[in-house]
Amino acid sequence: MKRLIIFALFVAAAWYGWKNYGTVFERKDSHEAMIENLTGEGLQRVRLIVDGQTLVRESIKSTEVVKLPFRVNRDSDFELIWQWEGRMGEMIWRGGRVTAGPMTQRHRFVMRGDRDVVYLNEPKSAPAVSR
Fold first, then answer.
1. Do β-strands 65-70 and 53-60 pair in parallel, antiparallel, or remain unpaired?
2. How high does pLDDT run on average in the chain?
3. Which of 6, 30, 86, 98 has its Cβ near the most Cβ atoms within 10 Å?
4. 12 near 86, Cβ under 8 Å?
């Protein structure tokens, strides 16, 4: 009886694998966050928090563009935290929105001043353009 149960479990697992083979190993597209530093100063300890994940970049030089891929399981807002090179204190920006739907997007965070963050989003299929 024990062998029959083990055999039945093996057959069920084989059938499930056969029917769902394509979806098990399918790689899903991911969203992309682009952080552009146009402030004229370097940034340190840059953290982008989305859907409970923290994407980290230790430093971003002036005029540098950083791309961070990520996936989400539910709709979420963004939180961007950074420090200036050579200055004390932490800066925090909250805003933007990412959806868990099938369309992947490129989310651009253009940093242009002391606390000036411009958020833009576009479909990921569009070419990435620096503005």
1. unpaired
2. 89
3. 98
4. no
117-123, strands of its sheet edge to edge: 65-70, 31-37, 105-111, 117-123
pLDDT 10s digits, 36-52: 999 999 999 999 999 99
Which residues have CB under 8 Å from 29's CB, separation 6+? 104, 124
Contact of 60 with 66, CB cutoff 8 Å: yes
Which stretch of DSSP H or E encloses residue 106?
Answer: strand 105-111
Distance between CA atoms of residues 120 and 81, nearest Å: 17
What size, in residues, is the chain? 131
Beta bridge pairs of residue 107:
33, 121
Predicted confidence (pLDDT) per residue in 53-70, tens digit? 999 999 999 999 999 999
Per-residue pLDDT tens for 63-100? 999 999 999 989 999 999 999 998 888 999 999 999 98
Domains observed in the chain: 29-123 (2.60.40.2890)
